[in-house]
Each structure stands twice: as structure tokens, then as C-alpha cells.
Amino acid sequence: MMIIYFLNGLAFGGLGLAAYLQLRRGSDLPLSKQLPWLAAFGFSCGATSWIDMFLASGSSETYVNRLEILRLIAQPLTGLLLLKFGWGILKGLTPLPAWTVFIPGILIVPVAYLITYASTTFITPSPINIPIDIWSRYLLYLPGSVMAGVGFLRQWSEQRKLGFSDVSSLMLGAGLAFIFEALVVGLVVPAAPYSPGSYYNYDRVIYDAFTGEQIIPVQSYGLTAWLNYQNVLETTGFPIQFWRMISAFAVTFFIVKGLDVFDAIHHRQVIALQAERDRAQQDAFEAQIAARQTAESWTNALMSINRQITQLENVDNILLYIIENAKRLLSSDFIGLALSNEDRSRLFLKCHCHSDRAEMVDKPAVVENLLILEVLQSNQAYRTQRETPREVLSNVCPLYDLPIQAMAAVPIDLDNQPIGVIWIARNGGKDELYSGMDLVWLECMADQVVIAIQHTLMTAQLQSLSILEERSRIAREMHDGLAQVLGYLNLQVQTLDALYRQGKEDAFQTELQQMRQAIRGAHADVRENILSLRTTLSNERGLVSAIQEYLDEFGIQTGIETQFINEIDGSLYLSSVAEVQLVCILQETLANVRKHAHARCVMVHMTRVGDQIYLKISDDGIGFVEHSSKRSFGLQTMRERAKSVEGSLMLHSTEGEGTTIICKFPCLQKEKISEQSLLLVQ
How far is the first Cα of the chain from the last one, in angstroms, to the nearest whole number? Predict the structure, then answer.
């Protein structure tokens, strides 16, 4: 018997130690809140079993009395701890059904009866330890074990529904172990002269639960014999202590095994966290892809806009292209661009886009929305919030009656002065507000509008400067050519008059012939100047077409054969200033050919090598030596023209073998335009 008590105490002590160690690991599971009570129950129950072991060992009477007192205290204390643990398991692991609120009211009567009945047993002629043992089992062990078992079984059902088979199997084993504990510990009690532990037998005696000594002769109490130590021994052939040892090992095994639920749930949480991390990484990856695609879309749009600006597209076409792309990229239903008057008191709609195609406004349309006017006057961007009143969004679309849900607007700032506003809007079909990033992108488009306007103004200024420069050149040439010829003709007329009066007919004819040659030279200069003006100041047909037309006209006027070879396909990617200077150098070279080279043929060859445009002009004239030629001043002017656009000019000439001039100009590559667009995006 001592071995049984020892093993029983060892099992429950191990249960308490396992619960305590698991408690120290910490967890946020509901079961962890009940581990202190489980640990206390295990230690207390183990101590009770070891007290029984010492009592059964036949210790001295002094120690027996002390041990019996300790057992009287430990027995109900163990039951209380089990009851607290069982109630916590029943209530804490999973919420109880709503109807369980009536259980206390239903049980109050039978529980009160049992307590009253138990109290009366203390006055019966039996040792005090027997009723304490019996009723601590009935009133504490039994309900505590049943509640713990039911709690674990309910958790088993819940986990099985969730599909967690590993956790549910552990809960099932723990639940069944406590139900078995309720049977062998809570229901089987020592034989006593009161129900339900009475022993109905006139020939037998009642033995002490711990020492085995006869304590009360059996008499007939008129009660049916039920579960007690004697019946269990007679029925199974093993004392109840053996079955309680089996129960202790079962409870300890399944509870300790059930504590693996922490590891199982922790493993499940780790898997869930890994899945969440993977999902977050996937979401982040998809967000990066979406952001990259958005950035690429904006970059491509800005590159295309910048390319149109550098190619001197019409400013209205550029503005329409800008708002079309902004509407598409910002997922808007309307976009408008308005410019202000001089005092910034009114805004006039310049262009807009409601459908898929942007349109310029034919008739002046005044923008009356106060929010848009406030953006102009404050020179600060604005976007609506959820609390923005919907009535202030009226007239956001001047030409359309759209129910606007969200709006964002940024000023068009030219030299720190707002000159207009560009704004986007979404109608009632979308309740999605614009973000701060949307404002940033819209500001990029506003910057593109400013660049287009500035580029147009600069182009106009450059054209004006080119006109002034060309006028100065023509004035110089007229002064050096036509004016001198007219002065010469004035003197010749006076000479002719004198010769006519003197009757010198031969000298008269000679002077007259010289005057005719001077007049033909002046006429050629005037026609060349007219052709130069028409070619330099009108570039609607493009640079290549202008050169071809100029060469054709030059050949007709001078009788010199011209040949043009162009090896460049597509755009030349030259700046507008470089194009003007290239034409001017060509004109001045051909003028020198007409005046000085006595050439029969001129060949113009244009090609691209890397990022450079080469223009080669060759004639089969008499050639010259540069330092002794009258053309030195003109050559210096041509070199200055080439240098002003970061180009260069080289000359090769040999007397009697003709002259070759090679001009080199840097071109605007597509890659450079892309880099500029990327800088704008950043």
C-alpha cells in the first residue's frame, strides 16, 4: 500500500511541477490563467498521498496524530483547489452557453441539502476524518473533476470544429482523465453509516480509511449499499487506492500531455505569423510593383510631354496632352486648367477633359468655385477631406453639372507668381479621396504646364532675337553691298553725264557696261537676301525641307548646280537656336561661293555620327588661302555662330581645287530628354 501511495503522490507532484514549469514559460492562452490552481492542486494532492503513505507505514503515535491533523487540512484544501481549477477550466477556456446562467439557481436547493446533510453526519458516532474525507470528495472533488472534464471536452469540441486535430486530441484525453478522476476519487468514499457510502452487511465491520482498523460495528441502517471502498475491493479485487493511483497516472499523463497544447498552439501561431509575414511581404512586393508601374507610367508621360516641348510642339497641343495624361493617371472624372487675369481676381478656363479627349475652350468660361479661387490667391495646393461640405464642391466643373465627391487643385506658379490653377475631380460614383501623393503628381503636371509656357515664351524670344540678328546681318550686307553699289552707281551716273557732254562715246560705253554689272550684282544680292529671310524665319516645313528648297532656289538664281545628300532619318534633335545657326552658316557659305568661288557645282552632305550632326559643304571653285582672303571676316562670323550652340566649324581649301566647310553641332538625344524627365519626377 505504501508503494501505491508513493506513486500516487509522485504522479500528482509531477503534475504540479509540470504545471508550474509551464506557468513560468508564460503564455497568453486562457488555459495559462488556470495553471497556478492546477500546480497548487498537484502539489497539495501529492502531499496528501505522501501523508497517507506515512500513516500507513506505522509511525509513532506522536507523528500519526500530527499527520492526521495535516491530512484533515490538506484533504479539503486539495478539493477546493481542484474545484477552483475545474470552474476556471469550464468557464475560462470557452464561453459558456447563455442558458448556464440559470445553473446556480437550479442547484442551490440540492447543494444546500447536501451541505445540511453533510453537517449532520459530523454528529454521528464515527471519527471526524471520515465525514471530512467523504464530503470533501462529494462536495469538492466530484464537482471540481466534473467541471474540469466538461471544460476540456467542450474545448475538444471547439478545436475539432476549427479543424485543429492536434489540439482537440489533447483536450479529449484531458477531459476523459478528469471524468475518470471524478468517478474514482469523487464518488468512491470510505464505508460509513450514512448514504451514499453506507455498507449494507450485518456480518462485516467498517474499517478505517487510512489505518485499516475496525472502527464501528455494522448495524442495519435501512440504506442500500452503494459506492465505497469495500464494494470496489469486492467487485474489482483491487483496493480503491490502486484505482486512484491509476487515475492519478491517467490525469497526470493526459494533463502533462495536454500541456503540449501550448506548444501546439504556439506552433500554430508561428505558422500563422509566418503566413502573415509572407502575406505582408507579398502585399509589399505587389505594392512595390504597383508603385513602380505607377512611377513608370508617370515617367513615360513626363518624358513624352518633355519631348513634345523640346520639339517645339504647339503649346495648346502640349496643354491638352498634359491634362489628358493627368486625368488618366490620377483616375479622375474631370480635369480643368484655368489661367488668371492680371490682378488674379478671376480665372478663365483654358482647357478641360471630361471624356477621353481633352478640349480647348472656344468661348471664355469663368471659374467661380471658391476653393479653386482660394488656391490661386493663396498659391497653395488643396485637396478635399471627408468632412468637407459637399455644397462647396459646386461649380467645380464649369461646363458640366457633375456631382463631385472629391477634388484636388494646385496652383500654376510662374516665377513665384500664380498664373492659374489645374484641378482634378471625381464624381459621386467614387467616394475615394485624393491622397497627398496625388497632389505631388498633380504638382508635377503643373510644373510641366509651366515648362511648356516658359519654353514657348523662350522660343518666341529666341525667334525675336534671331529676327533682330538676321535684320542686322541683312543691314550689314546691304550696307556692304547694295548701299555701296548705289553709291557707286551715283558716281557712275555723274561720270556718264560728263562723258556724254564731252562726246567721248567709247569711254561712255565702257562705264555703262560696268554700271550694268554692278546692277546685276546688286540684284543678285537682293534676291539672295530675300531667299535667306524666307528660309531662316519660316520653319513650318522643317529644317531638311527648308535646306532643300533653299538649295533649289539658289541653283535657279545663280546657275550653280546644287546637290543635297541627307543620311539622317527622322528628327535631327537639334535645338531651335542650333537649327537657325546651321541655316545661317549654310547661307553665308553659299553667298561666298556665289561671289568668290566661281564654282560650277556645290554639294551639301548632312549626317549623324554618335550624338553629333555634321554638315559638309563642298564646291569645285578656285579655292583660296584663308589668311589672305577677303572672306576671313565672314569665316570668323560663321565660327562664332557654331560656337554659340556648342558646335564647331572646320575649313579645308586649296587654290584651284575648291573649298570644303564642315560644321559639327551637338544634338539632343532621347536619352538626355529621358534623364531630364526623370529629374522632374524626382
Answer: 87
Q: How many domains does the chain have?
A: 3
pTM of the model: 0.45
- Mind listing the pLDDT tens digit for each residue in 126-166? 566 666 777 677 777 787 888 888 887 877 877 777 776 76
Is the residue at 270 inside a domain? no
The neighbour count for residue 392, using CB atoms within 10 Å, is 14
Residues 245 and 303 in one domain: no
Say yes or no: 71 and 198 in one domain: yes
Closest CA to 307 of 293, 322, 294, 295: 322
Tell whether 233 and 368 lie within a shared domain: no
Note whether 403 and 302 are same-domain residues.
yes
Both 120 and 54 in a single domain? Answer: yes
* Nearest residue to 155 via CA among 245, 41, 264: 264
Alpha-carbon gap, residue 393 to 263, rounded angstroms: 58
Q: How crowded is the C-beta side of 13, counted as CA atoms within 13 Å?
A: 12
pLDDT higher than 70, residue 321 = yes
Residues 547 and 626 both lie in one domain: yes
Identify whether the C-beta of residue 393 lies closer than 8 Å to the C-beta of residue 408: no
CA–chain centroid gap for 433, Å, is: 17
3-state secondary structure of 510: helix
Of 397, 424, 453, which one is at a domain's C-terminal end? 453
Taking residue 85's Cβ as centre, other Cβ atoms within 10 Å add up to 27
Better-predicted residue by pLDDT, 610 or 6:
610
**Nearest 10 degrees: CA dihedral of 38, 39, 41, 47?**
160
| CATH code for the domain of 566 | 3.30.565.10
Tell me what pLDDT residue 314 has: 80
Same domain, 168 and 31: yes
Contacts of residue 435, defined as CB under 8 A and 6 or more positions apart, other chains included, come to 383
What's the rounded Cα separation, in Å, for the pair 348 and 345?
10
- Over the range 168-191, which residues count as b (16 or more CB within 10 Å of their CB) and which as e? bbbbbbbbbbbbbbbbbbbbbbbb
pLDDT higher than 60, residue 199: no
Contact 645, 581 (CB under 8 A): yes
Task: Please report whether residue 479 resides in a domain.
Answer: no
Q: What is the model's pLDDT at position 563?
A: 93
Residue 212, Ramachandran bin (φ over 0: left; ψ between -120 and 50: alpha; else beta): left
H or E element, residue 42:
helix 35-56
Backbone angles phi, psi at 280, to 5 degrees: -65, -40
Q: Are 118 and 136 in contact (CB under 8 A)?
A: no
Same domain, 311 and 240: no
Backbone angles phi and psi of 218, in degrees to 5: -80, 135
Paired residues of 563 in beta bridges: 603
Q: How far apart are CA 247 and CA 262, in angstroms?
A: 23
Q: Which domain holds residue 106?
A: 2-95+102-258
DSSP, collapsed to helix, strand or coil, labels residue 597 as helix
Helices 103-121 and 129-136 pack at an angle, to 10 degrees, of: 170
Whether 520 is covered by a domain: the verdict is no
Residue recorded with cell 529671310: 533
Residue 484 in any domain: the answer is: no
Q: Where are the alpha helices (DSSP H) in 141-187?
A: 142-162, 165-181
Of 418, 453, 488, the position where a domain reaches its end is: 453
The CATH number linked to 391 is: 3.30.450.40
pLDDT, tens digit, 9 for 90 and up, residues 19-38: 777 777 666 566 667 778 87
Alpha-carbon span 395 to 398, nearest angstrom = 5
- DSSP codes, 281-348: HHHHHHHHHHHHHHHHHHHHHHHHHHHHHHTT--HHHHHHHHHHHHHHHTT-SEEEEEEE-TTSS-EE
Residue 78 grid coordinates? 486539495
